Predict the structure.
Amino acid sequence: MHSSLYVRLPAVMAEVDTSDTSASRSLIPSPSAGNKNNRNKKISDERMQSVREAVPSWMHRQDVADWYQNSGGRSTYLLGPAIPVTRLIAVFLVVTQVVVFFTVRTFATCQGQSAVYPHWVWTEMVPLAVAHTFAEFKVLQHYAPPYIDMMLLAKRPVFTVLGFSMSFTSWFTYSRLTSTSHMLDAATDSLFAGTILQATHCPNNSLEELWTKVWQHSALGQLGLPLVSARQIVLCAWIASFLNILFPLFATFRTRSSISYNFGETGEGDNCVGDNINNESIVRQVGDAAGLTSIGKMSLKFVELKTHEAIDENIFRTGHLLRVVSLCQQVVVSRMLLSNILESALQINIQITTYALNLVNATAGSMRMANIQALMSIVLSLAMAAGKVCEALEFFRITSQVSNYKRVMNAADDPDPEFSRLVRVFRRYLWAARFLCVLYAAGLLYGFCKLAALHYCEDFVWNITGCVVLSHT
């Protein structure tokens, strides 16, 4: 990754501190000595009872509640036991995709000039679906109490979908549907890649021949770039789709040899890229990469609320800015670059192009099933892209609040050099996020143009240079 985008981030930035105090309306503890003493003040029984009542009994864990109450609202003390299951489900997601890919390569059969995978391949994803549900349930048992406590203190609806308040059970059901869609989107990418690579071995398959004409007609071909075969493009794009999972996995490994995942451990330490991380940041980043939608939404809401409260109370300090910079780092690298562009936009465009090439060769339904399977992957990828756009909008709402805050705007004259330095880092991340967001939007727009060309272009294929003319075989 680009080392210039990284800063050394103290682990305290991601820590939930919702100490039981009525001295201030703000949820943000000030750095005063008085609040330091409150950091370990036990949360009242009445407040913990409200947290318990927000979730059904099957979600409640007494040991988690006891640790949260006795630590005075320190979320990092709760999350150590959740890290192994979070890592395991991320690894299981990668392993399942690899298994699906090679299963398709082995058992897909030729239909015309294309390949069709057997329907039973979908059963290989059942163990992942079960494990994924269990993992999200287990991680939420650790992650939910601090989030619920924070929302109740702020007098906001705890569980919402599209702005509507609902019960935990309904919210969790919606989160599982979203998480399952993420999992299926990743699986269909593997199905697509395996099918296309297998199709090149079918009799009279002309994919590479047609791809050569498309490449020559494209802007890259007209600039004189050497041909990259369809097989190479599909395989490289499939491998690139794993980076948004693998990078957070490796980037959250700590260099200390003795790491404890017990209750009461913050897990603070340096990771392999030199950043200081803790248990909360590990669960947030790896959980988001593994497609645990509820964790990603909670962490984003946490930063949004903390930032809003600090700005509203005019106490936005270095610690609050550190939290925002940490979010920016995760969003720019893991989400926008690795997930949105290398996994989403790239896959959408490649899949639409190869689908169009299949239509060129399709005659009298000879490749009907192959085209249906390819179209299913495209539709699911586009649906997930809409969710990624919504996440980006939420992120820019948070950064907009920070950018317009008076102290941030006048950071060059701030007496705290660390605050001024973090503002410069924040602005670099923000410009990187804007650039990647524009790039992602351009990639999606390009994909939609290719989709429209299926109807308007005689040979179905469109490049930025116009409709591609292909000879029918």
About this structure: The two ends are 44 Å apart (CA to CA). The beta strands are 109-111, 114-116, 160-161, 164-165, 269-270, 276-277, 462-463, 466-467.
